[in-house]
UniProtKB/TrEMBL annotation:
Gene Ontology biological-process annotations: RNA decapping
Annotated signal sequence range: none
Domain of life from the UniProt record: Bacteria
TM regions (residue ranges): none
Gene Ontology molecular functions: bis(5'-nucleosyl)-tetraphosphatase (symmetrical) activity; phosphatase activity
Domain (Calcineurin-like phosphoesterase) ranges: 25-219
Protein name as catalogued: Serine/threonine protein phosphatase 1
GO CC annotations, alphabetized: cytoplasm
Length: 257
């Protein structure tokens, strides 16, 4: 009780229109991709062209998580992300989403976790690896769980295991799902950062940072005083969105628009 009373309350973030990044820094944050390698390639082309047109900067690319599941080419998305991480080095950042969490858990071969993985779009992820739809359909769930650890490449698993839970730059905090209101960004639990929804989305109180997130699909970008949501349902809408930031400037790049 005393500990809760003494806990430092979050300082209000800068309002959305005055939030800023340090001078010289440019950031492109990419929303949930969900297996759409085609859209990712298109958006990265847009980002590279936009970055060149704006002149020199310390440019960073932040992936907000959920690279896999639902769409047809999760393996291809991970390959492209690895390629980008090798090209950009420390300027490429990857956040752990709830789908990455389940992907890694299912890779251990537990039948219950594999069943849940398939239920939330993992079937499409599995089929993007070296297994045919016919072979997949012929396997029992028990057999699929036994097969999965050898089907998912160690290179992919190791890469996804390296993902972070949060990235903070200037007045912005980048997370996958959101944060638990009333707690500083450093106090947030991984479970909330990867899974939270209504408690975060419906809260209008200021946070210590302006939160940039994916996870919850909207028809278009959702700008609120305390958060910006950029999951525009790429796997079904064809719109993959990037939030672009420099100083106090804010703009968007999108596919299919």
């Amino acid at each position: 009780m005393l500990k809760a009373l003494l806990r430092r309350k979050p300082k209000p973030a800068a309002p959305i229109d005055t939030a800023t990044l340090p001078e010289g820094l440019r950031v492109y944050a990419i929303g949930d991709i969900h297996g759409r390698r085609d859209l990712l390639d298109q958006l990265l082309d847009q980002i590279m062209a936009d970055d060149r047109s704006r002149g020199p900067a310390d440019t960073h690319v932040v992936f907000l998580g959920d690279l896999m599941d639902r769409g047809p080419d999760s393996a291809g998305v991970i390959d492209r992300a690895i390629e980008l991480s090798e090209t950009l080095g420390g300027n490429a950042h990857f956040l752990m989403g709830n789908h990455e969490e389940v992907y890694l858990a299912a890779a251990e071969g537990d039948e219950k976790l594999v069943r849940f993985f398939c239920k939330i779009g993992g079937r499409e992820t599995i089929l993007s690896y070296d297994i045919s739809p016919r072979e997949y359909n012929e396997l029992s769930m028990e057999e699929l769980a036994q097969r999965l650890p050898s089907l998912l490449p160690a290179r992919h698993l190791d890469f996804v295991r390296s993902f972070k839970d949060r990235i903070v730059m200037g007045d912005y905090a980048f997370v996958h799902a959101g944060i638990r209101p009333g707690k500083n960004i450093e106090e947030q639990r991984p479970k909330d950062l990867r899974w939270i929804r209504e408690d975060f989305l419906f809260d209008e109180s200021p946070h210590d940072k302006l939160i940039v997130h994916g996870h919850s699909i909207t028809d278009d970008v959702e700008e609120c005083p305390n958060r910006i949501g950029i999951d525009t349902g790429a796997y079904m809408s064809g719109m993959l969105t990037a939030l672009c930031l420099e100083g106090r400037e804010r703009w968007y790049l999108k596919t299919g628009s």
